[in-house]
Specification:
9 strands; 4 helices; four-stranded antiparallel β-sheet; three-stranded antiparallel β-sheet
Length: about 190
């Protein structure tokens, strides 16, 4: 009987193959990043983006081990001209679970009045933060007096923005939404153990 770790690795590789986006590249970069660690859970998310007249693909693979969150991104690279040979870039990042600051999961519900406990949701957005990237949002500061014309400078907020993955039942199917929820639950549980 195969161990649960080999079963988890086999499921990861099956999902990468099913995604169909350069699976050999994706598998190689993940295997390198895993460095022999066992897979506890994973999420494979493929996006298609339209950039001017080009169609570009992107896959994000999140892999949870006992000690780390591994992120792999593979993107189409735009060519110099329309006849350019296709190229791709593959990047991995490894974050120690103890460094994860936030695991946020937003549930989108299409018809909230008819929602019942345990019902499927229409989409989820998984937001992860470990402090590598932040977004600054600025706006003009005011003093509260609507007739004041003085320059009060700016006020703003700094928001963590390391990774956001949105999965929609309409685009990817209900099973993909369930997979994202299951991965978020496994990741949340892992951060609670640290």
């Amino acid at each position: 009987m195969p161990s649960s770790s080999s079963t988890a690795l086999r499921r990861l590789r099956t999902d990468v193959e099913r995604a169909g986006y350069y699976p050999d590249i994706v598998t190689d970069v993940i295997d390198l990043a895993l460095a022999g660690e066992e897979v506890a859970s994973h999420l494979v998310h493929v996006e298609t983006m339209f950039d001017r007249a080009e169609v570009r693909r992107h896959v994000t693979v999140l892999v949870l081990t006992q000690t780390r969150l591994i992120l792999a991104h593979v993107d189409d690279l735009p060519g110099e001209d329309a006849d350019a040979i296709p190229a791709a870039a593959a990047t991995t990042e490894s974050v120690a679970i103890r460094h994860l600051r936030t695991v946020g999961l937003t549930h989108g519900v299409a018809e909230p009045a008819s929602y019942r406990r345990g019902s499927a949701v229409s989409e989820v957005t998984l937001a992860l933060s470990w402090g590598a990237v932040s977004r600054v949002e600025l706006e003009p500061a005011t003093c509260g007096d609507p007739s004041c014309e003085a320059d009060h400078g700016f006020t703003g907020s700094m928001l963590p923005d390391d990774l956001v993955v949105r999965v929609s039942a309409d685009a990817e199917g209900p099973a993909a939404v369930r997979a994202a929820i299951d991965f978020a639950a496994a990741l949340s549980a892992a951060t609670a153990r640290v």
